[in-house]
Amino acid sequence: MTCGFRLLVAAVVLSFCRLPVVADAASPAGDFGESKARVRLVTDTGEIEPGSTFHLGVVFEIEPGWHIYWRNPGGAGLATHIRWQLPEGLEAGDLQWPLPIAFTQSEGIPGYGYEGSVVLAAEVRAPLDYDAKSPHQVRAKVSWLACRGVCVLGAAELEGTLAALPVDQEAFRGRQEDLPRAADPGRPPFSVTTTGGLADGRLILWLRWPEEPRLVEWFPDPSDALRVEDISVQTRGALTRIDAVARPLENAAGPTDRLSSLVVLTGPNGGRHGWELVIDLDDENL
Questions:
Q1: Are 211 and 141 found together in one domain?
Q2: Do both 104 and 198 map to the same domain?
Q3: Whether pLDDT at 5 is above 50
Q4: Nearest Cα to 218, choosing from 68, 93, 100?
Q5: What does the angle CA 28 – CA 145 – CA 10 come to, to the nearest 5 degrees?
Q6: Residue 44 neighbours by CB distance under 10 Å
């Protein structure tokens, strides 16, 4: 939670539910409940082989007009959180975050997150001795903040056996395009020039594209060491300038010489693509 959260929340309602994976199917159409979002646990395959990988995900269906938050909520808000409880031998990777959208909150505070529906998933590896006939129980403890002027906290515990989990190919279809990519060094989508730095508290990024983009957005990752705010993005032709105030936090809990971020491009056809961008903040290298 960011310090700006106190400005955003005029009213907060705590909503907690413990749900089996099929409970959501009984919810009336259009009923999102007090938490303003419906959640369900899904997988992308019904056949898990020893040593194979698959995806476990939580589908969020968000009430129209409301939003939930990305891993960095922006100037105010609370990141959505999922904690997996898996059988011994199954290992889940990091949560995979689709490209967020930017929105303006109360008092002009910037926010990053999702509207409509989104799938937050992790890749899971099965052990070599995996027995598909065993009743492998999986659980996901999920929490989120939904906002539209006021905010409500939502939480759910989803559970089920792997063999009985819904296989939701539609939820996962096209999801790969919604995930950020690592830039290909041999064919980078843009060139980057960085000026400024922590010494003067201001960071300027210049991105040059091979052709004029329709829209460029920049999302800094959450950091225990840096505060990044007052972001502006301007594009003219094939050149984008990103300005931000960047300062180290007092008692920083991590390194201050690197900033992870996400660059999102909207192309002429309206499609969005994102790339991970790590910025070197070492003043000697700027």
A1: no
A2: no
A3: no
A4: 100
A5: 105
A6: 19
Q: Are residues 19 and 110 in the same domain?
A: yes
Task: Indicate which CATH number applies to the domain containing 192.
Answer: 2.60.40.1230
CATH for 33: 2.60.40.1250
Instruction: Based on the fold, state whether residues 191 and 115 are members of the same structural domain.
Output: no
Whole-prediction pTM value?
0.86
Which segments of the chain does DSSP mark as H helices, in order?
5-8, 169-172
User: Within a 10 A sphere around the Cβ of 223, how many other Cβ atoms?
Assistant: 21
Q: What range does the domain containing 234 cover?
A: 181-285
Q: What is the pLDDT of residues 169-190, one digit of tens each?
A: 888 887 778 999 887 777 789 9
Q: What's the CA gap between 123 and 134, in Å, rounded? A: 20
The residues, ordered by sequence, that sit 6+ positions from 167 with a Cβ below 8 Å of its Cβ are 42, 43, 44, 45, 46
Residue 251's H or E segment, with its range, is none
Question: Can you read off the two tokens belonging to residue 206?
Answer: 């210049």
User: Tokens 């508290």, residue?
Assistant: 201
Cβ atoms within 10 A of the Cβ of 94, count? 8
